[in-house]
Amino acid sequence: MTAYLKLDHIDKIFTRGAASTEVLKDINLTIEKGQYVSIIGHSGCGKSTLLNIIAGLTTATTGGVLLENREVNSPGPDRAVVFQNHSLLPWLTVYENVRLGVDKVFAKTKTKAERDAWVMHNLNLVQMAHARDKRPSEISGGMKQRVGIARALAMEPKVLLLDEPFGALDALTRAHLQDSVMALHQKLGNTILMITHDVDEAVLLSDRIVMMTNGPSARIGEVLEVPLARPRKRLELATNATYLKCRQRVLEFLYERHRFVEAA
Amino acid sequence: MNMPATKIEVETATPAATAAPVVAMTPKRPPRSEAYARMARETVVRVIPPLVVIALLTLVWELVCRRAGSALPPPSKVFKDTKELILDPFFDHGGIDKGLFWHLSASLQRVALGYSLSAIAGIALGVLVGQSVWAMRGLDPLFQVLRTIPPLAWLPLSLAAFRDGQPSAIFVIFITSVWPIIINTAVGIRNIPQDYRNVAAVVQLNPLEFFAKIMIPAAAPYIFTGLRIGIGLSWLAIVAAEMLIGGVGIGFFIWDAWNSSHISEIILALFYVGIIGFVLDRLIAGLGKIVTRGTATS
After folding, report:
1. Do B198 and A135 touch (CB under 8 A)?
2. By the number of CB atoms within 10 A of the CB, which of A81, A202, B143, B149 ranks highest?
3. Contacts of residue A89 in chain B, CB cutoff 8 Å?
4. pLDDT tens digits, residue range A4-17?
């Protein structure tokens, strides 16, 4: 197994005044190129913190992140993030939001016309080219998230980080967008790391599911391979034995062995 | 009554948007004349009430001040006394004997200069205080004390420093209007959502790009609130400052009229001061609306 993205003994301790909380403890994970990996766990277990560490938005207390055998500890476009609440800049149009990243990343390697074409290409990938001149306030939540994905994809990241990308969407839009992301992964072969708390979503989309124990001091409890062939079809999987077994396995982990305890 | 009128207005304004098949099914649009009539009615509904109130107040004023020995002139006398000033605002007999246009424009120039300086300095300091915790700890207490000093209290000090009326007046405008701009800008910068900062970090904007592309647009609604309070305060301060420094300007015009017992002229000047203050406020508000479109709602 060739390690493309490697999390090496990551600990994270938050210190506030004299009190310190250990959020993550000894996180080790290797991800191959082109893999789709989900991290699942109860809320508050530190999955978002872990994603922020990989993105470089926060730093690990000890341990580090290696991308293609190089340590990364500051944010950059090679690890583009799709944020949970889309985080589009409301004063820019859909086009300008994507263009912002493209202009920075390809400032030297692409001409103006090429950058323009590249932005439109990525908007086309997520079927949002028709809304290029709309502002985020004028499009629906699902559309905003599509633009968020286009913005991240347009930076040609080595790893695409998805932070509960479908969490704020209604069930139908969510399913639709999950299909889109699956199709994009199939087509572009990106390496994707997704944070989620939705079991079906994790099983449907991932090659591997990383299950985290409850915090504080959350660890990786179990890693499950999902041996389902791609492309996967939502409807067919509903009765697929492997799918159901994987699902069962994750549910058992989350609800029996590491049941969420309300903070006492 | 208001609803259908608004609807028509929208239809006439954007025919392209209503070209959907559903609209095409409805019988033909009401004739233009009808639309205009409705618009006119809407305007009348807004304009009539203030006009009635003004007319009533003028009438009361007239009745109260008409009797002999009254200290203040009634509106009819005000108009009679100041007719020349109203009709010819552009005369220039040298010195300070000029038409009202020249007085007002002199005041406006001072405000424009002082206010521009305070807008630049205010936004710059506001960004500093909003962005840096240490700058805030160091400067905020100072600002909180300084901003409570009344504008005119600064005047003697600035006269001593500048030894001239003109820069002193501009300094007073500056020092009066700069505080709300600083404080509102700082609040706006502090309230930039972490998400936007994360986006900037992932895209790797440099500090200058971050300032221009994220900070200023994100804080724009707050900045414009500060700018709007600031313009009001500078217009308040200029009249008082000019009364003391003399020369051409609406403030000194009022003081001069008082010294010559031309009460009617004072009333006319107050009228102009009020109207211009209102226009300045609306100007900044309108500018803010254009600049911050889309920012307020995300």
Report:
1. no
2. A81
3. 196, 199, 213-214, 217-218
4. 888 888 888 888 88
